[in-house]
Amino acid sequence: MSTSPNGRTYSRNVLPSLADVVFLGVLFFLTVGDETLLGDADTGYHVRAGEFIIDHWQIPHSDIFSFLTPALPWTLHEWLSEIIMALVHRQAGLTGIGILFSFMIALSAYLVFELLLKERGNILLAAAAALLVVLSSASNWLARPHVFTFLFVIVFYHLLNLYQDRDRNYLFLLPPMTLVWVNLHGGFIVGILLLGVYLTGNLAGLVWESPSRRTVLREKSRWLAVTTVACLCAAVLNPYGYKTLLFPFRVVQDRFLMDHIAEYLSPNFHFSSVVPFEIMLLGALAVFAVSGAKLNMIELALLILFAHMSLFSSRHIPLFAIVAGPIVLKQAQLLFDQPKGRVMAALRARIDNLAAIDRSSVRWLWPAGGVLLVLLLAKAGLVNYAFNDRHVPVKAVEFLQREPIAGNMFNNDEFGDYVIYAAWPRYKVFIDGRTDMYGANRVREYLKISRAEAGWEELAERYQLTWILHHADSTLSKVLRERSDWRLVYADELAHIFVKALPQYDPLIRRYAAPQPGAQENPYTN
Q1: What range does the domain containing 375 cover?
Q2: What is the pLDDT of residue 525?
C-alpha cells in the first residue's frame, strides 16, 4: 500500500512508474528506432583491443593497430570496458554491443529520474528536469566506454549528496567504485573532482559558518578528506599506475587536439542537438534569478565547474546535465512552493496523488520485461545492429578483403576505426580515433595530407604511403583524381581507394582503374 499526503491509499499496481516509462522509452528508442549507437566506428577498435587482451592475456603498452614504427606508447585506460565489449561481441556480435549500451544508457536515465524524484518529491518537476538531462546527454549516446562514466557519476554524485545533505554516510563505497571506474574509463577523474568540490566546500564553511555548524563541517571534512585520499590510492591500482591520473590532464593541455578534434570543441549552438543543453543552461539562470534562494558554496562551485567544462568541450555536456539537474530542481521546487491560493493547493494535491500512484508501482517489473522483450526480438533477428554503410566504409573494406593491397595505407581517421574492426591485422592504419595516442604532431601531418596542403607529398614519401583510403568528397581525393601517378581503383558514394602507379599494383590498375585525369566513373561497382 502507498499513502498520499491527503490520506488516500493505493494498492500496489502493475502499471509502469514514470521512471519505468523513461527506461523503456530510451531502451526502445535505441534498440528499435535509432542508429546513433554505432554512429561512431570507435566501437570497432574498442572491441578489437579487448579481444587482443583476452587472446594474449596482456594489456598492450604500445600501439598494435598502426603500421607506424617505432610503435607509439599507448595508455589503454579503458581496458576493462574493452574486455567486456569483446566478450559480449564474441557471444552476440554488434547486436549484443548495441543492446548492452542501450541498457546502460536506459539505466542511467532511470536512475536520474528516480534520484531527482527522491531529491524533491515533485514528480512533474522531476520529470521535466529528467527529460532535460536525458535530452542534453543524447548527442553522446554512443557504444563507447564513456557510457560507464555516466552511471558512475550518477551514483557517485548521489552518495555525496546523501552525505552532505542528509548525513547518510555511504562514502566507504566510493574507493571500491573508483577502483573499478579507473579501469573502465578515464572519466574516473570526475569522481575525484566531485570529492574535491565537496571537501573544499566544507573546509571553506569552517571560515564563515557559526561555531555550532563548524563542528559538523569539521567532521564532514575529515570524512571527505579520508575518502578522497582512499579514492586517489584506488585510482593508482591500474596497469599504468599514477600515469593514469595524469592522462586526462595531459590530453586537455594539448591545445592543438583541443582545437581540431570534434568532440573536444565547444558546443555549436547552431546544431539542434545542443538545444536541450541551451534550454537547461538558460533555464537554470532564469530559475536562480527568480527563486531568490541562495546557492550554497558546493552547489555554486559545481555549477561553475561543470558549466565551464561543458562550454569548453561538448563531450562534457552530459556531466553538466547530471550535476545541474538536482540543483536546478531544488530551486524550481522553492519557486513552485511560493504561490498560495486554492488553485495552487489543488494542483499540489493532484501532483501528490500522482506521486503516490507512481510509488505504488512495482519497481523493475516493466524494465525487466522490456529487456527480456529486446533480447527475444534480437534472438528472432528483429533487432540488429550494424555499422551504417552511409557513414562507415563497409563496401570499401569488403573490396579490400577481396582484393588485397600491400603497402602502407593512408586513411581518413574515422575510416581507420572501421578498418581496425573489419580488417585488422591484415591491414594496419595510418591513424584512427585514438588521437590522444598519436599526438598533435601526427595529427598535423594527417591533416596536411588530407587537405593536400603544401608538403603533403614529402610526408607521403617519408611514410612510404603507396595507397589511400579516404572520403570520396575530400580535398585529397579530388586532387588525386587529377593526377596520373595515383590511380583510382575503387569508388562509391562514401569512399575512394587510390593506389600509387607502381609495378606492384599493375594487375589491380588494369582490372579496376578509371581513366585519368578527369575520370568521372570507376568501372568497379560494388
Answers
A1: 18-116+363-386
A2: 41
For residues 113 and 190, give the distance between their C-alpha atoms in angstroms, rounded to a whole number: 21
- Cell numbers for 394, please give them: 563497409
Check whether residue 410 and residue 506 sit in a common domain: yes
* Continuous segment of H or E residues that includes residue 3: strand 2-3
d(CA 418, CA 423): 8
Residue 122: pLDDT band by 50, 70, 90 thresholds?
Answer: confident
Strands (E), 323-430: 408-411
For β-strands 465-471 and 486-491, DSSP reports them as unpaired
Q: What pLDDT is attached to residue 121?
A: 65
Say if residue 24's pLDDT is above 90: yes
Q: Which of 132, 104, 118, 107 is nearest to 325 (CA)?
A: 132
pLDDT of residue 465: 97
From the CA atom positions of the chain, what is the Rg in Å?
A: 27
Cα separation, 257 vs 441, whole angstroms? 10
pTM over 0.85: yes
Q: Are 398 and 438 found together in one domain?
A: yes
**Percentage of residues in the chain having pLDDT higher than 90:** 71
User: 473 Cβ partners below 8 Å, 6+ apart?
Assistant: none
Count CB atoms within 10 A of the CB of residue 142: 18
d(CA 316, CA 187): 10
If one counts every other C-beta atom within 10 angstroms of the C-beta of residue 455, the result is 11
Q: Which of 351, 386, 421 represents a domain boundary (last residue)?
A: 386
Q: In what order do the strands lie in the sheet with 486-491?
A: 408-411, 465-471, 495-500, 486-491
In the structure grid, which three cell numbers stand for residue 296, read together? 550554497
Is 239 domain-assigned?
no
3-state secondary structure (DSSP) of residue 73? strand
| CA 290 to each of CA 78, 230, 431: distance values in angstroms, whole numbers, following the listed order | 43, 41, 51
Amino acid, res. 493: E
How many domains, in total, are found in the chain?
2
φ, ψ at 153 (rounded to 5°)? -65, -45
Residue 62 DSSP label:
B
To which residue does cell 558546443 refer? 267
Cell of 48: 578489437
Cell 496523488 -> residue: 353
User: Quick one: 92 exposed, middle or buried, by C-beta within 10 A (0-12, 13-18, 19+)?
Assistant: middle
pLDDT computed for residue 225 by the predictor:
97
Residue 33 placed within a domain: yes
| pLDDT reported for residue 515 | 66
